[in-house]
C-alpha cells in the first residue's frame, strides 16, 4: 500500500491588481460595501498580453518543483482543475504539459469549480495509492475576470472573483500524508451558480450564432443567498466527516485551509469549530475567489509564511457550483 504526500507547493498571480476603489469607478459600489459582504479588498485580473491559464499554471508548477527539489521530467501525471480552460477543448492539462516541455505523460482535466482542487487531489491520491504513478502534479488555475459582467448589473459577482494559479507536487511515500478525501455533489442546485454558455444543448443557430447580441448567458449567474445558506452547512458536515473517518477531533486541527469563497463563510466555520485565528488561513482579502486555484494558492502562501510544520494536521474544505463540496485531511 502506497501513501501520497505533498512535497512541493507553488502559486502564481497576475500582476494586475484590481482594488475596490477601482471597481467603484466602473460600477455603483464602494469599498465598505464589498468588504462588509465578502471581506475582499483587492483581487488580481489577467493581462491578455501576458497571462493564460496554462502559463500561470506552469509558473506555479515550477515554483512547486523547485521547492520539492525536482524537475519537470520527474512528473508522471497531471491532474488539472479549472472551469476556465484556455480553449473550449482541449482542456488546459495538455497545454500545461506542453508549457512544461513534457511528452506522452497523461493529463486529466477536472471541472468541479470551487471543489475542483480537492477533487483533483483525491484523484491523484488514488493513482499513487494503486502504484500507477509516483509523482503527480495537481493544479488549480483560473481566469475568471474575462467572463464577469463588470457593471452595476453584475456587481454581485464582479467584485468577488479573481485570477490565479496554484500547484502541488504529490509523491508516493511510505508514511501517510493524505489521510482521506471526501467528495459530494447535489445537481438539484446546478443553476444556482453557473455560466450557461457556451453549452451544447442548444439549437444549431443558438450554439453557433452568426452574431451574438445578448451575451448575458456567457456570464456568471449566482444566487448568493442560496449558495451561502448551503455552504455553511456543507462545509461543517464535510469537515466533521473527515475528522470522524480518521478518529480525530476538531481540536486536532493545526490549520484549516478553506476554499476562499467569502470571508464571512470562513469566519462562521472558524467560530463553529472554535478555532483561533492562527488555525485558519485566509487570503481572500488579497485575491478574491479564485475558484479551483484558491486552496493551492492559500496552501503555498501558508507554507511560505511558516504556518505549516512537520506533523501538523491540515484540513482542506470547499463548497461551490454544482453544488459540489469536498474535504481532505493531511498529515504534513
Automatic annotation (TrEMBL):
Residues 260-264 are annotated as: ACP-binding. Belongs to the thiolase-like superfamily. FabH family. Its EC number is 2.3.1.180. Its main location: cytoplasm. It is found in: Cytoplasm. The keyword Repeat does not apply. Catalyzes the condensation reaction of fatty acid synthesis by the addition to an acyl acceptor of two carbons from malonyl-ACP. Catalyzes the first condensation reaction which initiates fatty acid synthesis and may therefore play a role in governing the total rate of fatty acid production. Possesses both acetoacetyl-ACP synthase and acetyl transacylase activities. Its substrate specificity determines the biosynthesis of branched-chain and/or straight-chain of fatty acids. Homodimer. Residues 108-187 form the Beta-ketoacyl-[acyl-carrier-protein] synthase III N-terminal domain. It catalyses: malonyl-[ACP] + acetyl-CoA + H(+) = 3-oxobutanoyl-[ACP] + CO2 + CoA. This is Beta-ketoacyl-[acyl-carrier-protein] synthase III. The active site is at 114, 259, 289. The lineage of its organism: Bacteria, Pseudomonadati, Bacteroidota, Cytophagia, Cytophagales. Keywords: Acyltransferase, Cytoplasm, Fatty acid biosynthesis, Fatty acid metabolism, Lipid biosynthesis, Lipid metabolism, Multifunctional enzyme, Transferase. It comes from the Bacteria. Pfam families: ACP_syn_III, ACP_syn_III_C. Residues 243-332 form the Beta-ketoacyl-[acyl-carrier-protein] synthase III C-terminal domain. Pathway: Lipid metabolism; fatty acid biosynthesis. The last Arg residue of the ACP-binding site is essential for the weak association between ACP/AcpP and FabH. It comes from Chryseosolibacter indicus.
Amino acid at each position: 500500500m502506497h501513501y501520497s504526500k505533498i512535497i512541493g507547493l507553488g502559486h502564481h498571480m497576475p500582476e494586475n491588481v484590481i482594488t475596490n476603489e477601482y471597481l467603484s469607478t466602473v460600477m455603483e459600489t464602494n469599498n465598505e460595501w464589498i468588504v462588509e459582504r465578502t471581506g475582499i479588498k483587492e483581487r488580481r485580473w489577467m493581462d491578455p498580453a501576458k497571462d493564460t491559464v496554462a502559463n500561470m499554471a506552469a509558473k506555479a508548477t515550477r515554483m512547486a518543483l523547485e521547492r520539492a527539489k525536482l524537475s519537470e521530467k520527474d512528473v508522471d501525471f497531471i491532474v488539472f482543475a479549472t472551469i476556465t480552460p484556455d480553449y473550449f477543448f482541449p482542456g488546459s492539462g495538455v497545454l500545461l504539459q506542453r508549457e512544461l516541455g513534457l511528452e506522452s505523460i497523461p493529463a486529466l482535466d477536472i471541472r468541479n469549480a470551487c471543489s475542483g482542487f480537492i477533487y483533483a487531489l483525491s484523484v491523484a491520491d488514488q493513482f499513487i495509492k494503486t502504484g500507477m504513478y509516483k509523482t503527480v502534479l495537481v493544479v488549480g488555475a483560473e481566469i475568471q475576470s474575462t467572463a464577469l459582467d463588470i457593471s452595476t448589473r453584475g456587481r454581485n459577482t464582479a467584485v468577488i472573483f479573481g485570477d490565479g494559479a496554484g500547484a502541488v507536487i504529490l509523491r508516493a511515500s511510505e508514511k501517510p500524508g493524505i489521510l482521506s478525501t471526501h467528495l459530494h455533489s447535489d445537481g438539484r442546485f446546478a443553476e444556482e451558480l453557473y455560466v450557461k454558455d457556451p453549452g451544447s444543448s442548444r439549437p444549431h443557430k443558438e450554439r453557433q450564432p452568426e452574431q451574438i447580441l445578448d451575451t448575458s448567458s456567457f456570464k456568471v449567474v449566482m444566487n448568493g443567498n442560496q449558495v451561502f445558506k448551503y455552504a455553511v452547512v456543507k462545509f461543517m458536515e464535510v469537515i466533521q466527516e473527515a475528522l470522524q473517518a480518521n478518529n480525530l477531533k476538531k481540536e486536532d486541527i493545526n490549520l484549516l485551509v478553506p476554499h476562499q469563497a467569502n470571508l464571512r463563510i470562513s469566519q462562521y466555520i472558524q467560530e463553529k469549530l472554535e478555532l483561533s485565528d492562527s488555525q485558519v488561513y485566509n487570503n481572500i482579502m488579497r485575491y478574491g475567489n479564485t475558484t479551483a486555484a484558491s486552496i493551492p494558492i492559500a496552501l503555498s502562501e501558508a507554507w511560505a509564511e511558516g504556518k505549516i510544520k512537520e506533523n501538523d494536521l491540515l484540513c482542506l474544505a470547499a463548497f461551490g457550483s454544482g453544488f459540489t463540496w469536498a474535504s481532505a485531511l493531511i498529515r504534513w
